[in-house]
């Protein structure tokens, strides 16, 4: 009787694909593919790190932008004054500028008329003369005011060294308080101005007259896009408190209520799809049951204010027309105080410095040359400082995170930003608008390099995350292959040993 009866099934060892040769060929194919894929995997996962100009960036941190300013005292007007007036004026301005943390980069030269070529300087002392765009004149007049172009008229009473130095320092180097600085929106070369009429009930030429002249003068700094909308149901997020005032009553909004006046949950104030910063100007018309809606002071007393400002966001104007007056149409007379308030709020939000209290303006335009120049110099200094800090942050991040990629685009943006900063330094002797354009370009390039998608992603994807991703993938594949390879090597060595002994 056959010891191995035939049952119609083949033994596994005798199957063609279970032979040692086929099994080892299959295993070898896997390892061949892995070995051949290693260079591609290494190339695709390697990080490109191009060297950045760290030395140039470090050198930029020590550089300061200097604005040369030329102040000419009209010789015929000051002929009876002390011949040493310009020299004494320089001394006072030196002390003022050195005490200012913001305006130490001003290089003022004061001279008397025709002798302006040999004028003294405040700050750095250069021999070349400033262009006309940086020249300011001071003359006598019957009242103290600023005129076009870049002229200051002073009365004899204000022609003393101390008073004249105080006026010039406030015009050329206006200080901004911490409260005012918090109101000013961050610089951008493009803004969107959104004007919204909110009617609490569910039921232009003024831009051209009040705002367009300001925007026209500020187009050197900002390119503004104006849009508007009307909403007929805009409820408040809080309930104003009702107060009795004799035979009448009114509703009051406390300072705490002003901080939550904007009902973002129900007011659709979103602008059109754009990355430009938006400044909102809201005209709020209370319902007839809540009119008049008044703003209260910190002591709970009624004030005459009808508008308030939200720092870096925009402004709100509350328009009351009486409980019996149905708000169906806004006349031109109704909108005059509204847009006048919006114009003042826009000036405050953009950081335009105000004139000194004892100085008026005799120019037809809303802003004088002195105000525009001071704003241009301030924004230029801010842009250069922010550009320097951004470039320094890029270099520090790249040095700190070894796995952060630096491609040719990042290097190009950094080089272009440094070149723009150099141009800003060179053009400081020209019109203030020229260094502003270069500083704005430097800030834009530095920000573009800092927020490069490749670099930004590595801030949130450290090396530990790589191990967490690759370990589950490669462990499940490599363990069976390694075990099979070891087993085949052991079987091959055993076969060789058996063949040698047999």
List the helices and strands and how they pair.
Elements lengths: L19 H26 L8 H8 L5 E7 L11 H15 L6 E7 L7 E2 L13 E6 L4 E3 L3 E4 L6 H12 L5 H6 L6 E10 L5 H13 L5 E9 L9 E5 L2 E6 L1 H5 L18 E8 L7 E3 L11 E4 L3 E5 L13 H18 L10 E2 L7 H32 L7 H19 L6 H18 L2 H6 L4 H39 L1
Parallel strand pairs: 1-2, 1-4, 4-6, 5-15, 7-8, 7-11, 10-12, 11-14
Antiparallel strand pairs: 2-3, 5-6, 9-10, 13-14
Characterize the structure shown.
The chain is an alpha/beta fold and 502 residues long. Helix content is 43%, strand content 16%. The protein has 13 helices and 15 strands. It has a 7-stranded mixed sheet, covered by helices on one side. It has a 5-stranded mixed sheet with strand order 8-7-11-14-13, covered by helices on one side.
In the sheet with the most strands, the strands line up as 3-2-1-4-6-5-15
* Count of helical stretches: 13
Give the helix/strand class. Answer: alpha/beta
Identify the overall geometry.
elongated
- Poorly predicted runs of 5 or more residues: 115-131
Q: In a nutshell, what does this entry contain?
A:
This protein has 502 residues and is an alpha/beta fold.
